[in-house]
Amino acid sequence: MSLRQSATVPASGLVVKPPRLDGLSVGALVLAALAAVPIVTILISAPSGGMEALAHLVRTVLASYMLNTLALMALAGMLALVVGTGCAWLVSAARFPGRSIFAWALVLPLALPAYIAAYLYGDMLDFTGPVQSVLRSATGLGVGEYWFPQIRSLPGGAFVLGIVLYPYVYLLARAAFAAQSVSQFRAARSLGAGPSRAFWKVALPAARPAIAGGLALVLMEVLADFGVAEYFAIPTFSTGIFRSWLAMGDKQAALKLAAMMLLFVMALIVLEASTRQGRAVSKDARADDDSLIQLSPLGKGLASLACSLPLFLGFIIPAGYLLSMSVSDTAINAAGELWSYASGSLWLGLGAAIVCVVAALLLAFAKTRSQSPVVKASIRVSTLGYALPGALLAVGLLAPLGAVDITISRFARDVFGYTGGLVLTGTGAILIYALSVRFLTVAYNSVDGGMSKIPPSLEAAARSLGAGPSRVLTRIYAPLLSPSLAAAAALVFIDAVRELPATLILRPFNLETLATRTYRLASDERLVEASIPALILLAAGLLPVLLLTRTGKR
Fold it and tell me: What CATH topology corresponds to 63-133+145-325?
């Protein structure tokens, strides 16, 4: 045993001291503690008190919340699974007209927030909307003389969510199909297996981990959804938490619902993490222009149609309808107040972006300098926020911060004579805190990816010249990471601007953002007036989509 090893073995009468934490480890630990506040609050609040609220939920709405949430996840997940996997296979394995365009354009529905898609489809397919109006005009049918699917329903909500979220499955499935072994698929074909049998027996099983990972992301988004469920009057956990906390003022009921929702979130996190273990890249992966299956002229036409349909339904039709409304006189006249709520979105997004970029830079730097389990665990906890629904995050923060705020206000009143009410609750700082917890993962992934490309020899050279950690970070890493930092800030800014449930619950009374403005106008059936802010949100969402497309081409 070496001297270094023997020093760690406790001898009789000796006390082994735990390893000392450096400044970076402490910083990472503090960030993890701040990010874990909503989860810890909900876990502590779930088994304590409020049993009357839980009993009331069980007697009244809990079954509908659970069944509707599960049904929405199942239907939307199935649609996203079929569309995403099918389009990914066609684009990866076959050649047909428009294939090169579909390869990147099929990601565009991610640019459209699901709640805006719900507003647009609700207006288009309503009885007084353009689709049914044209149908009645063309057929001469009147009220009650024909059947038309009801968009404001659970299946309608599942359709909207599935058709805008399928790119999560498409992106991962396409990457998995492109990385598969050519020889295995062609060996199956040479043994007499047809294209469909080779797909089901060879290609699909090999891509299953990646597809399951994409599906887990879709289910997380469906679970976190508030805008679609609220607009289509679908009782789910998200809408239940929102109504219990704000509409009925029942905090205990909201916390109980948040705890149950947290169980779903944890299950999906485990599912998504487990899928990563089965992903591998084949050494004989084919080139992008290789074709695994040959389509007939009819097959090529059907493949183009199959890829066109989700693109039109998920992006082109709603975006075109939104654009047509935004050029009307009503929309233009309503845009007179655009700057007031655009400025609210601007400072909110900038605040969250700055906090997330600084925190992500600290975590990524700590990762490069330490292999401590404390740092690894801190990073894992700090980046869990993206899986937390906005409503759950808001309730998990309001409960403890409200108690802290009351204590601070009482102290300020008794010592300084302060009479201004609560200091923290209802301020923009709390909202930026919540959004930073929610979107720190986005910033960290970007910064960590850039950090991994910097040679460790640069830091070693700087340290040999006497530079401390802070100087290395500011003089070496920060300049080299400027593209990654800018990308991280842009992505967080866009996500923060588009966030709806957390902003609705935590925002100050005098703050209106593009997302809340769109929500309120659409809730009042004033969609034309909401079209311009909604169009701005859609345009903002194109940036991360284009970045995803660019990454997928590499």
Answer: MetI-like fold (1.10.3720)
